[in-house]
Specification:
The complex is a heterodimer of chains A (283) and B (258). Helix content of chain A is 79%, strand content 1%. Chain A has twelve helices and two strands, in the order ααββαααααααααα. Chain A has a two-stranded antiparallel ribbon with strand order 1-2. In chain A, a hairpin with a 4-residue loop joins β1 and β2. Chain B is built from ten helices and ten strands. In chain B, the strands form two sheets. In chain B, strands 6-7-8-3-9-10 form a six-stranded mixed β-sheet, with helices on both faces. A four-stranded antiparallel β-sheet of chain B has the order 2-1-4-5, covered by helices on one side. Chain B starts with a strand and ends with a helix. Classes of the chains: A mainly alpha (283), B alpha/beta (258). At the A-B interface, α7 and α8 of A face α2, α3 and α6 of B.
Chain lengths: 283, 258
């Protein structure tokens, strides 16, 4: 009897833990079952590298969307990663305690803003600004990159900060005792020592950027074409699903699930590489 | 042992916030010698050591009164270049704090940051300093391997090589053998004796035998009734251990030995 009682909470927790894992398994299985037949029909190569997306004519090529996702994400990384790393260095090394106590919750708050609000702000502020100062339609890779750069900041900052704070104090002392300036100690000892954590922060930030849908739908313009400049509109893998899911049926619907498979593989690859980087460090 | 004092402390008072950690310390450290700093835990030995490379500055609310000098140059003057001071006054810590990078990078990191870019020059520095630290023969084939893969004793000698690479005149050693096995300790003691021909070394140690084995001068610190660390006795090591002037020194030393 006692044994049974002791087991009950354990089993309950196990069941709950299992259900969250099985959600992952279910979703994975679902998108693959729904999407794989179409990829098989079109052919993997033609699906991934096909230039035309015309569901009405049975043409399913997602290459422009892959380019869209990659370019918007790369843009976000170019803007957001240096800003995020600098911010985490500032918070851990330079900011007075009072300022840190204001900055940290503010950055957490940034993560709590709904993505549709980011998108709306981008549409009303960033897009017109780009149209006015740089030309083009405004709805563009650049607009999406700016919005996503802000959205990945909390991820990049908080994970980099944690890895900088986790460094033994002795590294900094040792560097300063060699006559390095504070900045030299940061640049040549502390940042390299925290490298794997910072790389993981960057990869997770990029993963978040690749997966973001709502915010970018509103500012990218969503046209299916390979862009020739940062000011051109694009469509990403995520926005492709978001825009067309409402009216797609049958084969078209399958094609959207197949788009999801491509997205899924990219994000899995990013997450696995982030975990690999972190694990290599702890060895 | 040189005749000239290399380092001087004059009426030093050190405060951590409202707490007075060191009271009225005056001492002259002779150049090219080893000075051992001994005393019970928490008596301000490390604080005294860190006075000379201003590492106490890293502690928030630490405040130093009085004068400290290296070759008659004030250490706590308004315009003192602290990074230049720390290049002249190197430090080896209690636990080896090898950086997570290769053996080679560890040795040259200071030199590199002080503006030396030429690969050949850095390689020469690395070899010279690793030889000085009696580590060259053990690591010459694994310069590219991570420094943290070495044994604790080797890591501490790597830290010594790293300190030597920025051409210091003084080396502060803060219980630098306390985390090591006897064999590694022996090696580092031999190394200290060798280095003391060129460098001025101050060594904080809890090991009385070590103080007797290596040091020329000894400084005995103790906490007063008012919880302030004070320099009780400062004299040639032989005098302190075989004919202590102060009763407290005698009690501490005999207690330690007996």
């Amino acid at each position: 009897m006692r044994k049974l009682k002791g087991d009950l909470p354990e089993r309950l927790f196990f069941a709950l833990a299992l259900s969250s894992i099985s959600a992952l398994a279910l979703i994975t299985a679902f998108i693959f079952i729904k999407g794989a037949p179409l990829i098989a029909k079109v052919g993997l190569f033609d699906f991934i590298f096909g230039m035309d997306w015309a569901p009405g004519q049975g043409k399913y090529g997602v290459f422009p969307m892959i380019i869209g996702s990659v370019s918007v994400t790369a843009g976000a990384a170019v803007i957001g990663v240096p800003a995020g790393i600098c911010c985490s260095v500032f918070l851990t090394e330079f900011a007075p305690v009072k300022m840190r106590n204001i900055f940290r919750p503010a950055i957490q708050l940034l993560a709590g803003i709904p993505s549709v609000v980011y998108g709306f702000w981008g549409l009303l502020f960033v897009v017109p600004a780009i149209r006015a100062y740089l030309g083009g339609p405004g709805l563009s890779i650049l607009a999406g990159s700016v919005i996503l750069a802000i959205m990945i900041l909390p991820t990049v900052i908080s994970i980099s900060e944690v890895s900088l704070l986790a460094l033994p104090r002795q590294y900094k002392e040792g560097a300063l005792a060699l006559g390095m300036t504070h900045w030299q100690a940061i640049r040549s000892v502390q940042l390299p020592a925290a490298k794997s954590g910072i790389v993981a922060a960057v990869i997770l930030g990029i993963g978040r950027a690749v997966g973001e849908t709502m915010a970018v739908i509103m500012v990218l313009g969503n046209s299916v074409a390979v862009p020739s400049s940062l000011l051109d509109p694009v469509r990403t893998l995520t926005t492709n699903i978001g825009i067309e899911m409402g009216y797609a049926s049958e084969e078209h619907r399958q094609a959207l699930f197949a788009t999801g498979i491509v997205l899924f593989v990219i994000i899995m690859a990013l997450n696995i590489s982030a975990q690999y980087v972190v694990r290599r460090k702890t060895k | 042992m040189g005749e000239k004092p290399k380092l001087k402390a004059e009426a030093i008072n050190l405060y951590y916030g409202g707490t007075r950690a060191l009271g009225d310390i005056t001492a002259q450290i002779p150049e090219r010698s080893i000075t051992a700093v001994i005393g019970p835990s928490g008596c301000g030995k490390s604080s005294f050591l860190r006075l000379f490379n201003r590492m106490n500055d890293l502690i928030p609310y630490a405040r130093t009164e009085g004068g400290a000098f290296i070759d008659e140059l004030p250490i706590y003057a308004e315009g003192t270049d602290v990074t230049a001071l720390r290049r002249r006054v190197g430090m080896v810590f209690q636990k080896p704090n090898v950086f997570p990078m290769s053996v080679f990078e560890n040795v040259v990191i200071g030199t590199r940051n002080h503006g030396v870019k030429s690969r050949a020059e850095l390689e020469m520095t690395a070899e010279r300093c690793l030889r000085l630290a009696a580590l060259w023969d053990e690591v010459k084939d694994s310069l590219k391997k991570p420094g943290q893969g070495l044994s604790a004793g080797q890591q501490q000698r790597l830290c010594i090589a790293r300190a030597l690479a920025v051409n210091p005149e003084v080396i502060l050693m803060d219980e630098s053998c306390s985390a090591l096995d006897p064999e590694s300790t022996m090696k580092i003691e031999e190394l200290m004796l060798e280095l003391s021909r060129e460098y001025t070394i101050i060594l904080v140690t809890h090991n009385m035998e070590q103080a007797v084995r290596v040091s020329d001068m000894a400084a005995f610190f103790m906490i007063d009734g008012d919880k302030v660390g004070r320099l009780v006795e400062f004299s040639p090591t032989a005098d302190m251990f075989y004919a202590p002037k102060d009763k407290r020194t005698e009690d501490y030393i005999t207690g330690r030995f007996g």
